[in-house]
Design brief:
The chain has 288 residues and is of the alpha/beta class. It has a single domain, classed as Divalent-metal-dependent TIM barrel enzymes (TIM Barrel, Alpha-Beta Barrel), CATH 3.20.20.150. It is built from ten helices and ten strands. Helix 4 runs parallel beside helix 5, helix 5 packs across helix 6 and helix 8 packs parallel to helix 9. The longest helix is centred in the first third of the chain and has 27 residues.
Length: 288
């Protein structure tokens, strides 16, 4: 009888250990996500102090807006690049990606300055060892209902993509086009340097099934904006648990950058609230 209890105990212990390990694996999964924040969400667009504030709020990185002065990007100056890198190291944060935000007013499809700024952005990324440039298509640059705009963008991307490839940099297209439309652009350009910067809130508001789109875009997603245009995260319209599942399904690994639009608690407290919420959905892996 005693031997039977020992055997039964061993079996129960094995079963318990199996399910415990399975639950832990499901919790952490294979997803490797780092949390960042846009410097303009911190109300510090193109401002060096955004790095220290992001660190204070418990975030791992910052998406930096590239400001323009005299038709060139300010961060093209090596001295300013060094200042940013020194601050990032001092504060223990990284630069997740860059955004030449002027492209919304000077469209890539029609303004010659835009192509120059993208080329400068690539050079900045190479010098500062940053991998992703968000290429935005909003405002004047919106590609929807703009005859000929997509064709023009494809031609510009064909010219700049080889520079990005050589530098090891990815151009992430962010727009309100559907996943299918973005995939057609990627196919036409034919470069691994051209991918998609996916924004869950923008795409949801455009009427797309964001979970289907994430799975459809798959490996073509280079980075994502975590955003909810309705409320603080977890209280609004974005189901971040379902976002996580979709990202797990495509094997995503990289940055999830917060772009907050609702700040009912004030800027810092709202960002801290959203970050803490995301950390419950995207916990840091136990085994790094």
């Amino acid at each position: 009888m005693k031997r039977n209890f020992i055997v039964i105990g061993a079996i129960l212990g094995f079963v318990f250990a199996y399910f415990f390990q399975s639950e832990a694996a499901a919790e952490s999964g294979s997803l490797r996500v780092r949390l960042g924040v846009c410097d303009w969400t911190l109300e510090k667009p193109g401002d060096l102090s955004a790095l220290a504030l992001a660190a204070k709020l418990g975030l791992q990185g910052v998406q930096v807006l590239l400001n323009v002065k005299d038709d060139s990007l300010l961060l093209a100056a090596p001295s300013l690049q060094k200042t940013y890198l020194d601050s990032a190291a001092r504060n223990g944060v990284e630069i997740a990606s860059f955004v030449p935000g002027e492209l919304n007013d000077a469209p890539l499809q029609s303004d010659p300055r835009a192509e120059k700024w993208v080329a400068e952005s690539i050079a900045i990324c190479r010098a500062m060892k940053v991998k992703v440039i968000l290429v935005p298509f909003f405002g004047k640059a919106d590609l929807r209902n703009a005859p000929g705009a997509v064709d023009a963008v494809v031609e510009v991307l064909k010219r700049v993509a080889p520079k990005a490839e050589k530098a090891g940099v990815i151009l992430g297209l962010e727009s309100r086009l559907s996943a299918e439309e973005l995939l057609r652009i990627i196919e036409r350009v034919g470069s691994p340097a051209v991918q998609v910067y996916y924004d869950v809130a923008n795409s949801q508001e455009a009427g797309y099934d964001i979970f289907r789109e994430i799975r459809l875009l798959g490996k073509h997603i280079c980075q994502l904006h975590a955003k909810d245009n309705k409320d603080l995260y977890g209280k609004g319209s974005i189901d971040f648990k379902a976002v996580r599942k979709a990202l797990e399904d495509i094997g995503y690994s990289g940055w999830l950058v917060m772009e907050g639009t609702k700040m009912p608690l004030g800027v810092e407290e709202s960002i801290r609230y959203d970050a803490n919420y995301l950390k419950t959905i995207f916990p840091e892996p136990r085994n790094k």
